Amino acid sequence: MKDHAMQIPTYEDMLAAHERIRPHIRRTLVLTSDYLDEITGAQLFFKCENLQEPGAFKVRGASNAVFGLDDDQAKLGVATHSSGNHALCLSYAAGRRGIPCNVVMPRTAPQAKKDAVRRYGGRVTECEPSTTSREEVFAKVQAETGGEFVHPYNDPRVIAGQGTCSKELMEQIAERDGGGLDIVTAPIGGGGMISGTCLTLSTLAPDTQIIAAEPEQADDAMRSFRAGHIIADDAPDTIADGLKVPLKDLTWHFVSSHVSDILTASEDEIVEAMKITWKYLRIVMEPSCAVPLAIILKNKDRFAGKRVGVVVTGGNVDLDRLPWIK
Amino acid sequence: MKDHAMQIPTYEDMLAAHERIRPHIRRTLVLTSDYLDEITGAQLFFKCENLQEPGAFKVRGASNAVFGLDDDQAKLGVATHSSGNHALCLSYAAGRRGIPCNVVMPRTAPQAKKDAVRRYGGRVTECEPSTTSREEVFAKVQAETGGEFVHPYNDPRVIAGQGTCSKELMEQIAERDGGGLDIVTAPIGGGGMISGTCLTLSTLAPDTQIIAAEPEQADDAMRSFRAGHIIADDAPDTIADGLKVPLKDLTWHFVSSHVSDILTASEDEIVEAMKITWKYLRIVMEPSCAVPLAIILKNKDRFAGKRVGVVVTGGNVDLDRLPWIK
Predict the structure, then answer these.
(1) Which residue range or ranges hold the Tryptophan synthase beta chain-like PALP domain (chains A, B) (predicted)?
(2) Do B53 and A33 touch (CB under 8 A)?
(3) Taking an 8 Å Cβ-Cβ cutoff, which residues of chain B contact chain A?
(4) Which of B15, B65, B67, B177 has the CB geometry, 3.0–4.6 Å to B157, for a possible disulfide?
């Protein structure tokens, strides 16, 4: 396992990532809605990463890591710890290359998530739901398999892969009407998508503002941004379960250098924005993805009259438990 | 009000319709899923008409009728009776042309539907939930307004408009991989979408089979097809509420001439297929649209190894009442 800490990925790494992963990902739809434009006063372009085959943008970074391995390392496969979309997407990418993928998941993770990882060919090893247990079990799994560790976000290969999303978005907007975007907004958890967006736009469209969207109840990135150093919450609780993790050194580098602002939304605002999107865009998306629309609806003056790209990050939802149905 | 009965639309009418409506509709996404291909054994191409701005394919036929009116008639606007997507889409199209749209809806129709019609600028007049009342009230509204009657499906302008969907689908499949489709399947209620599909494919792709999908509990089209004449059910009850209406002379013409088969699915099978689509395609679609996937899952031998186009007809769902959540 190499130490990727502070190997800051470059714009060229992102371009190379796009060439590498193009056969394995989708150029996802950019969706608009007259109605959502009307109620926000902005012109919104939703980049639908929920429509990736495994349902999340994380297939970009995972594919870049998997298909960038040399043949010797590839034989040993990849490994990660995650109970969310990264586990799913890494298993999917590894499955496409035909190499092993080992995932350590808390035994308390939803059965559906474990099943989905296995469906893509990933091998699940359970740990107790604590950091100590996860680290112990992961070290053991990695020692046994020799699989390359692919961190969910604090990894230059992953960030370069996520950066391909905003490259595609800018290309699609230009094809549509020759224009650009005033703002791109995406949710922030560990900061992988936002870092990739910073990586790409700081070169490709330096005048486009990047505004990160975070749940009020897990606002560690916003507080870090204001304080000028990483503040990690102990155990934030929010319906936007993809956004509970803290920033790390690599993602903090991008967030502190290129993000214009971080805005937050309450749990009710997130649920309301989620339902509005399901209703008017008619796509299935996770609570985490609703945070950007929630901050737009909450801060209309910041977005009115602007052309705004909104990254819809994922669509893996427990359909039996929708937050607006009690 | 002209009598459109048995003015059978031609392939040229469909081509003219496509030119006419192109600025007012979306060229909707064609979505695929490795997982759904795996469980069906077929290669499925989902034409996502739920992603039209007003959420249904019916915007095609409605736009063709609205934008085909001469200026004198246009001033008087359009009128219809419908409690579903046709009312919404006709209001939307009339709104884009800036002409009046009068809709007669049963007072028992969901408030959300009435609100949606009004949001697009349609004027709602309520009737009692009976055919007699609907006809009386509609005659009165039409006498007062002089609006052109646009039937939800038994209208050559509407059928020609719906036919543009399979034209686009065939073009998109050809762009994707140069191939064609062995089968196109769509739900059947009154038969507007299926008739448009017949109109287009009988000229454009005469070897492509057209298989209609119908709820077991509203199987009047299937029984008509087997009997060789129209059989109308009195009051069918199914969760696929867009599919309760009977065939009429124009749609029967197409169904009886060009449809290869009509297959049915039970209520449970429809709900299961609906949930599978939400989960793996991550799109919001109505129960009616799930019937095609339900018949594919039920008749795998008929579809295995085939390239199958599936028309996802609409996405206007009551999100507070999902059929798999009790």
Answers:
(1) 21-314
(2) yes
(3) 29, 31, 33-35, 50-51, 53, 55, 119, 275, 278-279, 281-285, 315-316, 319-320, 322, 324-325
(4) B65
